[in-house]
Write a structure and sequence with these properties.
Helix 3 packs antiparallel against helix 10 and helix 4 runs parallel beside helix 5. 36% of the residues lie in helices and 21% in strands. The chain has ten helices and ten strands. The radius of gyration is 20 Å and the shape is elongated. The strands form two sheets. It has a five-stranded mixed beta sheet with strand order 2-1-3-10-4, sandwiched between helices. It has a five-stranded mixed beta sheet with strand order 7-6-8-5-9. It is an alpha/beta fold.
Length: 275
């Protein structure tokens, strides 16, 4: 095998059992501390939640870029006084940055392993799963390399994957193990979006990304059907323990878990929690 097997999911989910209702309860408690506009102490946003304002920093896995930007736009439309700044990187880098003192209000990772690390370091509190994702194989438009799957058609071709520490790289390890294959990548990237970019530019003949990245790529690449081997990435998010705007952070988390946030995620190809 290209890489050693990843830790079992059961060992990583022990810290992710907080129900979504706990987050809602937290949001309700914190929202009462947000000052109401001067013209109405009882004013609420369109969905009935108390309005939030100020600056909010969201650390999120790079595969969440398109969906979270749309979610953020929907949330700020309901809360005009709220401004959101994003940092989209590999999940492992986000956790490392938090551990080294970077300031964020929300952390969303592409796997449970990264979030478990953040929780063990007391960087976040009460993480909860909000989406799932699966792997896909993409090739440049027209498939000039004639790739037919994770098979001998990859021989002598430039396959790009995520590095071991990256959630999509860990998922690729699991896929290799599940399918009983050993891949020989030409390069290993620190972000799944970098894998996608190399395929879209024609620098690579094929790349293993998430289904959501294949969808986001659109006509810039083609998808080649591969078995998923039962490999699913579970995406958790949480309020950062040192959040400077905890009320807005909880509002963001609640919105992601809510019907509108879940609909946006589904439109971008994510599966619902537990799928």
């Amino acid at each position: 095998m290209r890489r050693p097997p990843a830790p079992s999911r059961a060992a990583l989910t022990a810290l992710l059992l907080a129900p979504a209702c706990a987050l809602a309860a937290c949001s309700g408690a914190s929202s009462s501390s947000v000052p109401a506009p001067a013209d109405s102490a009882a004013q609420t946003s369109a969905d009935g939640a108390a309005p939030v304002s100020g600056a909010l920093t969201v650390f999120a896995a790079s595969s969440l870029k398109e969906s979270f930007e749309e979610i953020g736009a929907a949330l700020t439309e309901k809360n005009p006084g709220l401004t959101i700044t994003y940092d989209f990187q590999g999940s492992q880098d986000l956790v490392s940055d938090l551990a080294n003192g970077a300031e964020a209000d929300v952390l969303a990772t592409a796997d449970e392993r990264s979030m478990a690390s953040a929780t063990e370091q007391s960087l976040v509190a009460e993480p909860s799963e909000f989406a799932t994702n699966r792997l896909a194989l993409i090739v440049p438009p027209g498939n000039p390399g004639g790739i037919t799957g994770l098979d001998p058609s990859l021989a002598g071709k430039d396959l790009v994957v995520c590095a071991d520490a990256v959630p999509c790289g860990n998922a690729t390890n699991k896929l290799e193990e599940a399918l009983g294959i050993a891949l020989s990548p030409a390069s290993e990237e620190q972000r799944v979006t970098d894998v996608r970019a190399k395929v879209e530019s024609g620098e690579a003949d094929a790349g293993i990304v998430y289904k959501t990245d294949a969808a986001a790529s659109g006509s810039a690449s083609d998808e080649v059907t591969i078995p998923d081997g039962g490999v699913v990435n579970h995406y958790p998010l949480a309020v950062a323990s040192a959040a400077s705007n905890p009320s807005a952070a909880r509002a963001f988390v609640d919105f992601v878990h809510g019907s509108e946030g879940q609909a946006i995620l589904a439109e971008h190809g994510f599966g619902a929690p537990g799928q």
